[in-house]
Amino acid sequence: MLTLQTIVHYSLHFLAPGIIALVFFKSFWKKAWLIMLATILVDLDHLLASPVFEAGRCSIGFHPLHSFYAIAIYFIMIFIPNKYVRVVGAGLLFHMITDFQDCLWMGIF
Known about the structure:
Oligomer: single chain
Mean pLDDT: 93
Number of helices: 5
Order of helices and strands: HHHHH
Radius of gyration: 14 Å
Distance between the termini: 25 Å
Helix content: 55-70%
Structural class: mainly alpha
Low-confidence stretches: none
């Protein structure tokens, strides 16, 4: 059964990057959207957890690529002059914001 939380979560992971690409990376928005979609691979760090998936677990601060140190690096990336580094940084940062929103929804933060 799809819940509102699930619909919002996956919409933010897949549709919102398209809007971000259109607004901030107009000259190459399609490529930027695809790059930002690819940043979902950051979730591969979930494979390091046991169990791999736990419904009530907050990713932020738990998985290595969702750590506050990693998030700081993603934030710095959006200021690097290379447009592709900025796109990756924006995608990763928005991914973390989406996951944080999930934690708020679960009442963890």
